[in-house]
Amino acid sequence: MIDFTEEQIQRYSRHILLQDVGVEGQEKIMNARVLVVGAGGLGAPVSLYLAAAGIGTIGIVDADVVDLSNLQRQVIHFTKDVGVPKVKSAEEKIKAINPDVKVDTYYEFLDSSNALDIINEYDFVVDGTDNFPVKFLINDACVMAGKPFSHGGILRFNGQTFTHLPGTACYRCMFKEPPPAGAVPTCSQAGVLGAIAGMLGTIQAAETLKYFTGIGDLLTNRLLTFDAKTMQFRTVPVKHRDSCAICGSHPTIDHLIDYEQAACDLKHN
Amino acid sequence: MAKIYVNGDVQEVNLPLNVSELIKQQDVQQPEMVSVQVNEEFAEREDWESIQLKEDDKVDFLYFMGGGSELRIKS
Ligand SMILES: [Zn+2]
User: Fold this and answer.
1) In this predicted structure, what is the pLDDT of residue B75?
2) Which residue intervals of A114-215 are DSSP H helices?
3) Is the ipTM of this complex over 0.90?
4) Nearest Cβ partner of B71 from A187, A223, A241?
5) Which of A35, A38, A46, A71 could join A59 in a cystine, given CB atoms 3.0 to 4.6 angstroms apart?
6) Rounded to 5 degrees, what angle do the CA atoms A37, A140, A125 make?
7) Helix or strand run (H / E) with residue A163
8) What average pLDDT does range A230-246 have in this prediction?
9) The whole model's pTM is what?
10) What is the residue extent of each domain of chain B?
């Protein structure tokens, strides 16, 4: 049992007042360890809300430094942070929002050499990455390690997310393998409305908090998609696929894969 | 004419129609960036030509979506 201080009772009062959360739920949140992969468009709102909620430990993986073009949507980074490692910038904001949160920073790329070691330190993983090779890596590593995770993707005016728990549909159940590198939208086609990142990231943060508190129904075996142009939201039922190469009954993938993706860097255009 | 459900919306189509033909009709811009489910079952890409659609079938196109940040990866 955590002994809540007066300050904590006040800070988390709007959670504690919720019948579904209460002191017990808040304690679960404060004992939780969450890994956020990518401190970008999705990782920013996820980290801010998880910090505010009082998640005990937040790990952040990102090998980038803040670029001016990030600030349109990556709301955890400020103008003064341009040039600073994203993990450092994010840590500073998390600490400013909530000094109770412990932050682990990984200023590196997540790849097949470190993914399992890092993921194994946490209870829940949030995919806030911007590319398919790492999305598949996170999926495969989480399935191998038996870790739950929240998947998130955004493009232009659209977003999609699902939550994986061991035994439920994984990313490969829905998308067998990464798209051919040549098919991935080019830079000029791959913009995104900044607020879409916030819409999707806050759904991921809500799923994370639901997971730890056991509230409601997670987005398992369902892919939530939305189109902000019409504000139509839809959940597509998806199934765990027995022939899935990673989570099926006869998995053919027995090691993590570093897929290649064609580089496309707006910074140098 | 038969009615099928594409991404949840009812559509009138002429049969016979296979999944590949439906993708062309729907003007899917990049078929390589789409994953298809027919009646909530994953449809293998190599089966798209041979899966014949019928009345009341539900077809869902799932699109690959990245993260909206610059598409870059370590070099
Ligand atoms: Zn699977």
Assistant:
1) 33
2) 115-119, 132-145, 171-174, 194-213
3) no
4) A187
5) A35
6) 30
7) strand A158-164
8) 97
9) 0.94
10) 2-65
Q: How far apart are CA A161 and CA A216, in angstroms?
A: 17
In sequence order, the 6+-apart residues with CB closer than 8 A to the CB of A80 are none
> pLDDT band at A130, cuts 50/70/90?
confident
Query: Sheet containing B41-43: which strands, arranged edge to edge?
Result: B9-13, B2-6, B58-63, B34-38, B41-43
Å from CA of A73 to ligand 1 middle: 31
Ligand 1 mean position, distance from CA B33 (Å): 18
Most distant CA pair in chain A, distance: 56
What is B2-65's CATH topology?
Ubiquitin-like (UB roll) (3.10.20)
In contact, A44 and A87? CB cutoff 8 Å: no
**Closest among A61, A35, A18 to A208, alpha carbons compared:** A35
Query: Which residues in B have their CB inside 8 Å of a CB on A?
Result: 7-8, 30, 32-33, 35, 37, 40-42, 44-45, 60, 62-75
DSSP code of A181?
Answer: G
Q: Which helix (H) or strand (E) holds A36?
A: strand A33-37
Alpha carbon distance B8, B58 (integer Å): 7
The rounded distance, in Å, linking the Cα atoms of A12 and A82 is 32
